[in-house]
Amino acid sequence: MLEKILSLDDNQSLDSLTTLEWTHGAAVALSLIIAAIIFSVYLYRSEKKLPKSRRIIMTVCQGLALLMLIIIFLGPFLKIRKSSSYKRNMLVLVDTSSSMNTEDKRNAESIEDAARALGEIKADENFDISQANEIQTKIASPSRIELAKATLKNNDLVNRLSEQFNVSAFTFDSQLQNIEQDEAEAVNSDENPEPKKSIKLNFEADGSSTAIGSAMNEAIGKFAGREVAGMVVLSDFISVKGKDPVESAKKYSEKDIPIHTLNFGLPSPPDIHVRKIIGPDVVFKGDRVPLRAQIESKGYNDRTVDITLKIDGTDQPAQQVKLKDGVQFVELIFVPDQESGTVELEVSATPFNDETTDKNNSSNHSVRILDEKIKVLYVEGIPRWEFRYLRWVLLRDPRLDVKFLMTQGDPALAGSSPRHIGSLPTSKEDLFKYDLIILGDVPAGYFNNDQIELMDELVKERGGSLMMLAGPVAAPTSYKDTVIADILPVKIGAGSWNPIANGTHPIVTSDGRLSQSTSLSLSDDTTDRIWQKVNRMHQLPPLDGAKAGATVLLSHSGSPEGFDQYPLVAWHRYGTGKSLFVGTEDLWRMRLEVGDRYHARFWGQTIQFLTLSRLLGQNKQITIETDRASFSEGDTVQIYANVLTESFEPVSDIEQYTVMIEPKGSPDSSSEIQLSPVTGTDGLFSGSYVAGEDGFYVLKASPSDESRANSPEFEVATINPEDRETGARPDLAKEIADISGGQNINQKEIKNFIESFNDEKPRQSEVVIIEELWDKEILFVLVLLFAGTEWFFRRRENLV
Question: pTM for this one?
Answer without folding.
Answer: 0.55
